[in-house]
Design brief:
Blueprint: E1 23-31, H1 48-60, E2 67-68, E3 77-87, H2 93-101, E4 108-115, E5 128-136, E6 150-151, H3 158-166, E7 170-173, E8 188-199, E9 202-209, H4 216-229, H5 236-243, E10 258-264, H6 269-274
Parallel strand pairs: 3-10, 5-6
Antiparallel strand pairs: 1-3, 1-4, 2-3, 5-9, 5-10, 7-8, 8-9
Length: 277
């Protein structure tokens, strides 16, 4: 594999520094997205962002606005979403996680809290993300843990799925992989690693990239599943990249199988590679 180098192209501006008298805090958030309409605040249901902001406001006695590194969809999970907020609270940064976790529902947890580096922005300083998509590849779906893997009852050809995933590697225009409604300024993305593994009745796709379009990972997962079952011939991803044709790809896989594993910043190369050991 090529040596991984993660570089942020973000140049901090005045908005990347907390107001006078405040500090910028960084949170690593884990959540089960089953009961939520996604990360971002919505008018049609509870979101993870809203849940956290309400807890932070009660804890700090301030009106807190939380900035997330990603906007996961309804039903999508996260183990390592990063977020930041500015506050005048004097609660020690490392103690915030303990205090917040006593106030949050059981399906949302702060894994780590710290002071953010100078000029840090959870979204714009990010230079990579690792996503995991899981399939339960068994005749019958699971009773326990079914909300974390999409069910595929037909046998999956993991070798064919890996060959197909290899076509993602490199810098490409992924316009065909963006769902309608995407507002991305550019559809060019770089995929550094893509790995399909099989253990027991679970087939897992891990992808590391510098960024992902709206529903891009779920479209990739749906395409690989169709290639794995023989429903779609190999070469679909290469054709879609070359032509920009969404119809060359498979259906969008269910949200429940997708987890944001990590958001990466400069210097996180070893942490990123550890997912692919």
């Amino acid at each position: 594999m090529d040596k991984l180098v993660l570089l942020s192209h973000h140049r901090p501006s005045a908005a990347d520094y907390p107001p006078e008298g405040q500090r910028r805090f960084r949170l690593i958030v884990e959540y089960d997205g089953t009961a939520y309409c996604g990360w971002q605040r919505q008018i049609n249901g509870p979101s993870v962002q809203q849940t956290l902001e309400e807890a932070l406001s009660r804890l700090t006695q301030e009106s807190v606005s939380l900035v997330g590194s990603s906007r996961t969809d309804a039903g999508v999970h996260a183990r390592g979403l990063c977020a930041h907020f500015d506050s005048a609270t004097r609660i020690p940064a490392e103690k915030l996680a303990f205090a917040l976790n006593t106030m949050l529902p059981g399906d949302v947890r702060i894994r780590e809290s710290s002071l953010a580096p100078e000029g840090f922005h959870a979204r714009f300083s990010a230079c990579g993300k690792v996503y995991r998509y899981a399939f339960c590849n068994a005749r019958h779906d699971r009773a326990i843990g079914r909300q974390y893997a999409a069910h595929i009852p037909l046998p999956l050809d993991v070798a064919a799925m890996q060959r197909e995933a290899d076509s993602l590697l490199g810098t490409h225009d992924f316009a065909a992989f963006a769902a309608s409604g995407s507002v991305a300024r550019s559809t060019v993305r770089t995929i550094y690693r893509a790995q399909v593994t099989h253990r027991g009745d679970e087939v897992t796709l891990l992808v590391l990239g510098d960024g992902f379009l709206y529903n891009m990972m779920r479209i990739i997962a749906g395409t690989l599943a169709e290639v794995g079952t023989g429903k779609r011939p190999e070469g679909a991803i290469a054709r879609a990249i070359a032509t920009g044709d969404r119809l060359a790809l498979g259906q969008t896989a269910p949200a429940r199988g997708l987890t944001l594993e990590a958001v990466l910043y400069e210097g996180d190369e070893a942490r990123a590679e550890a997912f692919f050991d």
